[in-house]
Automatic annotation (TrEMBL):
CDD domains: MFS_SV2_like. It comes from Rhodococcus chondri. Its main location: membrane. It is found in: Cell membrane. Residues 31-449 form the Major facilitator superfamily (MFS) profile domain. The lineage of its organism: Bacteria, Bacillati, Actinomycetota, Actinomycetes, Mycobacteriales. It holds the Pfam family Sugar_tr. Keywords: Membrane, Transmembrane, Transmembrane helix, Transport. PANTHER family: SYNAPTIC VESICLE GLYCOPROTEIN 2. The chain crosses the membrane at residues 33-54, 66-88, 95-114, 120-143, 155-177, 183-203, 264-285, 305-326, 333-354, 360-381, 393-417, 423-446. SUPFAM superfamilies: MFS general substrate transporter. This is MFS transporter. It is a multi-pass membrane protein.
Length: 458
């Protein structure tokens, strides 16, 4: 490879051009696997509480309202983490936030494993949520920024699939561990991700972010590291970078208020609506299912947890499917159609499927297949809609909106059941929320397929 000089690379446009000309390589896969492994444990940790509840309820004599708050307190932490992590990532870098949030939630997971106090458990869960909320959207931002426009949706979403794999692993491991050994070992496993810290320290910071902050020397050095490794494995010189259309370099720091100004206002409001509605449905159902199976249908803990696995596996199938469809059909069609189909599954569940545990299993798995696909698509789509200097902020607002859904969904379910409401009312309500999200995206979403991040942000 003919080295690209520091002078030639001394603009943000040229840094982006150098990234766009890179072939998909082992380096990209390595970065995706390392950051994806962090996301795997995020997924693993996020639903451990749902599969521990059948044991925690009798341990602390929890009412339906108390259960809702045990679930929601983590969502409150995620809301704080998503907003704070996005703001911080646009100032100190993507990898620094990923590393810090990883360490935080690992330590807090250990705390949850070794306390018998409900109050301390809730405190640890809230702080753990801060780490979870910060890491996931920032990790998606990093992966999006090192990926070129062509087939970006597939590449990013195949990375994001590691998250629902974590959810499936959580379901499988929980179904085996909790009935036999209790929930403590499950939460202790949440400390395992600290083993990933050495690998994270070896990754280069996002060159796009470095260039957007005016750190062009560091951006060039990061690109040289990437190009050298790819060239060594690729076996031939890389093509010359083709300069992107000239734009005025903007190295100012992004501000939250900008997400609600100009062309970004419509995007932000649309994203807030779909993030909150999708996660309201997803987490409201997933977090309560093991408890519903054990309390409403009187299944034993072992059976209730095994039933819950099927819903999570269906969600994983949906995530893989959308990864292969999103670059062909586009973001708008995939998200809108998935939410419509999710809504249809939920309405069918509400009207015909609440009479038995197996019916709930079948229809909730169908709903999960489609809503999980939306959740995954939102990570790649949100990162595309904002310029580099405020991309993490945009992802933070989207992630925070999702966390708001995570908080409200379980609380609404707890409120309905605590007031004597039926399962038909619960699932019918979820169907209405899913349909609302579909309508918002169908009307207000913009298509970003096959466009560079710089083109989209104009």
């Amino acid at each position: 490879m003919t080295p690209v000089s520091t002078t030639m690379s001394s603009t943000a446009e040229m840094i982006s051009a150098r990234l766009e000309r890179l072939p998909m390589s082992r380096w990209h896969i390595k970065a995706r696997v390392i950051v994806g492994a962090v996301t795997f444990f995020d997924g693993f940790d996020q639903l451990m509480i749902a599969y521990s509840l059948p044991v925690l309820i009798p341990k602390w004599n929890l009412t339906a309202t108390s259960v809702a708050w045990v679930i929601a307190i983590g969502g409150l932490g995620m809301l704080v983490g998503a907003l704070g992590g996005g703001w911080l990532a646009d100032r100190v870098g993507r990898l620094n936030v990923i590393i810090g949030s990883l360490a935080l939630y690992a330590v807090m997971s250990l705390g949850m494993a070794f306390t018998d106090s409900l109050m301390l458990f809730l405190v640890f869960r809230f702080v753990q949520g801060i780490g979870l909320g910060a890491e996931v959207p920032v990790a998606a931002t990093y992966i999006g920024e090192i990926t070129k426009a062509h087939k970006r949706g597939r590449f990013v979403l195949l990375y994001e699939v590691i998250f629902p794999i974590g959810l499936v692993a959580s379901a499988v491991v929980s179904a085996w561990i909790v009935p036999r050994y209790g929930y403590q070992i499950l939460f202790a496993l949440g400390a395992v991700p600290v083993l990933l810290l050495p690998a994270l320290f070896k990754l280069p910071e996002s060159p796009r972010w470095l260039a957007s902050r005016g750190k062009l020397t560091e951006a060039h050095a990061a690109m040289v590291r990437i190009e050298t490794e790819i060239t060594a494995r690729y076996g031939k010189a890389l093509p010359e970078p083709q300069p992107l259309p000239a734009t005025v370099a903007d190295t100012t720091r992004g501000r939250f208020i900008e997400a609600f100004q100009g062309i970004y206002l419509r995007r932000t409001l649309m994203l807030a609506a779909i993030w909150s509605s999708a996660y309201f449905v997803n987490y409201g159902i997933a977090s309560w299912l093991p408890t519903l199976y054990s309390r409403v249908f009187e299944l034993d803990v072992d059976t209730a947890l095994r039933y819950s696995i099927f819903t999570t596996v269906a969600g994983l199938v949906g995530c893989v499917a959308v990864a292969f469809l999103i670059d062909n059909l586009g973001r708008r069609i995939c998200i809108t159609a998935s939410m419509v189909l999710c809504s249809a599954m939920l309405f069918l569940l509400a009207t015909t499927g609440t009479g038995s545990a197996t019916s709930v299993l079948f229809w909730s798995a169908g709903a999960a297949l489609f809503v999980f696909a939306v959740n995954m698509a939102l990570y790649v789509y949100t990162a595309e809609l904002y310029p580099t200097r405020m991309r993490a902020i945009g992802c933070a607002i989207g992630g925070a909106s999702g966390r708001l859904g995570i908080i409200v969904g379980p609380l609404v379910v707890g409120g309905i059941l605590g007031a004597g409401g039926t399962l038909a009312l619960v699932f019918g309500m979820f169907g209405i929320v899913a349909l609302f999200g579909a309508v918002i995206v169908g009307i207000f979403a913009v298509e970003t397929r096959e466009k560079t991040l710089e083109e989209i942000s104009q």
